[in-house]
Amino acid sequence: MTAPSLPHIHTPTVQLRTDGIMCIDYGHNPNLSGEGLAEVLRRRREISQLAMPVLVKVTGRPSIDSQLPKALRSPDYCSITTAVAYVTDSWHVRNLINTYLTVQKPPYPLFIFDTEEEAVICLRRYVQGDPAI
């Protein structure tokens, strides 16, 4: 008998692009949680305290805990997030996001794109002030 496989735990990369867009790459089949988002938020604040758009890359079939939706609507997260664009080729991720949008619309604009280029074009309008932060 083999042990059940655990969700792939991926530490996302968090970086500020030169155009003023925060980029978070969760990789393939990540374990997404409220606790994990708190760590991403901490790392974002180390980079910048300013509100900015966020480009999120995720593929595969992520596992999501029950605390994540609440964390995505928290005042702490919303205070530094002007908009979010997900970049994914995953039908599963698109379905999760569309369900989330239907059930609990976030207090910031949220988009889904096939390519990073499309997402960046959209998010540029949500960059506040000088993008050379």
Features:
133 residues; alpha/beta; Transcription Regulator spoIIAA; five-stranded mixed sheet; two-stranded parallel sheet; 5 helices; 7 strands; DUF7793 domain-containing protein; DUF7793
In short:
Helices cover 33% and strands 26% of the residues. The chain has 133 residues and is an alpha/beta fold. A hairpin with a 5-residue loop joins strand 1 and strand 2 (22-28).
Descriptive notes:
The protein is of the alpha/beta class. The chain has a single domain, classed as 2-Layer Sandwich (Transcription Regulator spoIIAA), CATH 3.30.750. The chain is built from 5 helices and 7 strands; from the N terminus they run βββαββααβαβα. The protein has helices at 34-47, 68-72, 75-78, 91-103, 116-123, and strands at 13-16, 22-28, 31-32, 52-59, 63-64, 81-87, 110-113. Strands 1-2-4-6-7 form a 5-stranded mixed β-sheet, with helices on both faces. The protein has a two-stranded parallel ribbon with strand order 3-5. Strand 6 (81-87), helix 4 (91-103) and strand 7 (110-113) form a beta-alpha-beta unit. It starts with 12 loop residues before the first strand and ends in a 10-residue tail after the last helix. It comes from Leeia speluncae. This is DUF7793 domain-containing protein. Residues 18-126 form the DUF7793 domain.
